[in-house]
Amino acid sequence: MRKSKLKKLDKELRPWLDYYKEDGIEANLEYPEYSLSDMLFEAAEKYPNNMAFYYYGKRVNFHDFVEKIKMAAKALKNYGVKENDKITVCMPNTPEAIIIFYAINMVGAIANMVHPLSSEKELEYYVNLVDSKYIVVIDAVFEKVYKLKDSTNLKKIIVARVSEEMNVVLTGGYWLSKGRKISIPKNDPKVVMWSEFIYNSRNYQGDIKEKRTAYDPAVILYSGGTTGNPKGILLSNLAFNAMGMGAKAMIKQIVPGATALSILPVFHGFGLAVNIHTPLVNGMGCVLVPQFEKKKFADLIKKTQPSFIIGVPTLYEALISAKFGPRDLECVKATICGGDALNKTLRDKVNAFLEEHGSDARIRVGYGLTEATAACCLSPENAFDDGIIGAPFPDDYIKIVKPGTHERADINEDGEICVSGPSVMMGYYNNDKETMQSLRYHEDGKLWLHTGDVGVLKEDGFFYFSQRIKRMIISSGYNVYPTYIEGVINSHYAVLTSTVIGIPHPYKGQVAKAFIVLKEGFKPTKQIEKEIKELCAQNVAVYALPHEYEFRDKLPQTLVGKVAFRELEKEEKAKREKKQK
């Protein structure tokens, strides 16, 4: 196996090297030059009998998992998929989702991962952006995708039922309760069921594996970029494999045979890279959870006994509100939190809860963004200072720069977080302008990702997160982009302008609130509000819909005439504080 070694930087630019040495972490790793599916196959050869995934009572080992991937790869080839084709995957965490993900990579295509709860217009945008000819979709949202057949170049819509890989008893229960309500046309040549898709793989007799290198594109995920509009983030095979190897170097509990509770969704970078690919390439198993149910959380953990819990703050809020016995969390060896800032109160509650219920794990905080394959920095074990995000993964370099410059900020001085290394994206798909704004060569000759987040490097050699520069709302760990919602609202015939901000929510962390100014001659009525809500429902993902709508005669402005959304945030905060008194 050929390997490449990344160039080292001087220790003075990496003050965290002392921590690496103390904790036995390799500062630089050797990365394979092959694909992310090759890395999975290598793990399967080493641990063929280890559980690869568990799904509603059914366990599948690595040997059988790989066979399923090969069958799906043959099926893709049978339907004409070629190297570098973009295959859209519109799935929650089901076996079919991860099988098709690795099969797509195996045949040299690129996985275009999208949220099943996206609106019809958003899905149309995602499919057309990359000119996707094939889509794999969960049955529950088939009708929405089927409407795209005339507005896109889709050749095949491959439909997987949630119940495909359930055990027999649960399959029957699903069909009686939900499955039979979904109508799927039987005579449309564009539509094929997953079982038929796999069965027809027998018709293909050629090679199924295309040679891909570490530096070839592998995955497209979605985020807001610097403007807040949806952008396709193109990530390489190397980015995913470096994530798997870097996490193992940083987290000693990653060992073959351990299991991860895979609740974070596959269409989210944190879910796909950290919660699926990382466990699998290290011989660990994934407990696949397609839909999180707070009431069943305790039963799920008791039944599946996961070694790892990886989630966003709202997941840990659910954990500490669930009922467990004194030793019920003894199985949990590591807990990682990311996707949003973890406040001190919740962190302390989680650590106390774990200890009270038999676990030695203490929550560690990760930092990252989809543009850096979801995670590039992790707090040390037993380091609980406010805001700490710790040290970069091996070969990922982080520096704090003075905003608007390439100049390194001083120790203890806030600035913009910049990241360089194997985890950084190849760029925004088909959007050079956005790519050039985010990826910039600095005077040191390295390519740096400007994250739009504010952080600080302190004297202890660790990084701390301060705030996000971008206008972005984080709701239950999902990124919500105000600019996009405003565009939808502003398209209503009666709307002059609108501004969307994030307001606190007891469970989701934040939700969106829309402030709306109507055109002259229009007055706020229940009918207009209803129309705006319906417009949002048609064009905005469910998780991003505004929870509140408020009509104003005018909005506060800055000195240069921009909407002062910070003023609106202050008003909302004052309103809440007044109510609490």
Description:
By secondary structure, the chain is an alpha/beta fold. Among the domains are: 9-28 and 396-468, Luciferase, domain 3; 56-212, Rossmann fold; 473-580, GMP Synthetase, Chain A, domain 3, CATH 3.30.300. Helices cover 31% and strands 24% of the residues. α2 (36-46) packs across α4.
How are the SSEs ordered, and which strands pair?
Layout (H helix, E strand, L loop, with lengths): L2 E3 L11 H7 L6 E3 L3 H11 L4 E5 L2 E4 H17 L7 E5 L4 H12 L3 E4 L6 H10 L4 E5 L3 H5 L9 E5 L7 H10 L13 E3 H6 L17 E7 L7 E6 H14 L8 E4 L6 H13 L3 E4 L8 H8 L3 E4 L1 H9 L12 E4 L6 H13 L7 E4 L9 E2 L9 E5 L4 E5 L13 E6 L6 E2 L3 H7 E3 L5 E11 L5 E6 L4 E3 L2 E3 L1 H9 L4 E11 L3 E10 L7 H14 L8 E4 L13 H16 L1
Strand content: 15-25%
CATH fold-type name of the domain at 56-212: Rossmann fold
CATH class of the domain at 56-212: Alpha Beta
Can you name the CATH architecture of the domain at 56-212? 3-Layer(aba) Sandwich
Apparent shape: globular
Helicity range of the residues? Answer: 25-40%
Number of strands: 29
Question: What's the Cα radius of gyration?
Answer: 24 Å
Largest sheet: 14 strands, mixed
Helical stretch tally: 17
